Amino acid sequence: MVKLTREQGQRITEAIRKAESLTSGEIRVHWTGSDVKDAYVEAVKLFGKLGMHRTRQRNGVLILVAPKNRVFAIIGDSGIQEKAGAALWNAAREAMADRFRRGDLEGGILEGVRLTGEALARFFPRQTGDVNELPDLPSQ
């Protein structure tokens, strides 16, 4: 099983905090060492399991990475889907896939978090009183 190192987890956590400083949206990264045949199906299951649908504005985004099977997915809750649709994630997906192809898993995740934060900020800019509704630490 491939796991994130403590240092990688810290860098991803910091990237999430930085991205979320621009938006009321919530970003989570889930790294799994398990066999994942369909990253999208797995992400949908995890979305509910991680409680990502419980944000006030329904603007949570999950980035699932399964390096063992070389697959990943980015999915957003209904609030962001209604405003932007799935096309919103294309730039993040492409940037992540490019980094992953070059063997840079951590860099791909960091770039995906950054681009996802920028996209969320366009539709859900940070407002006074916004609170962090979900953990920033990557789950495994």
Question: In what order do the strands lie side by side in the largest sheet?
Answer: 1-2-3
Number of beta strands: 3
Largest pleated sheet: 3 strands, mixed
Arithmetic mean pLDDT = 92
- How much of the sequence lies in strands comes to 5-15%
Overall shape: it is globular
Given helix and strand content, the structural type is alpha+beta
User: Kindly, what is the distance between the CA atoms of the first and last residues, rounded to a whole number of angstroms?
Assistant: 11 Å
Describe this structure in words.
Helix 1 (6-20) packs parallel to helix 5 (105-123). The protein is 46% helix and 14% strand. The protein has one domain (6-123): Roll (Diaminopimelate Epimerase, Chain A, domain 1). The protein has 140 residues and is of the alpha+beta class. The longest helix is centred in the last third of the chain and has 19 residues, at 105-123.
List the defining traits of the structure above.
140 residues, alpha+beta, Diaminopimelate Epimerase, Chain A, domain 1, three-stranded mixed β-sheet, 3 strands, globular
Overview in brief:
46% of the residues lie in helices and 14% in strands. The chain has 140 residues and is of the alpha+beta class.
Structural topology:
Blueprint: H1 6-20, E1 26-31, H2 39-49, E2 60-66, E3 71-76, H3 78-84, H4 90-101, H5 105-123
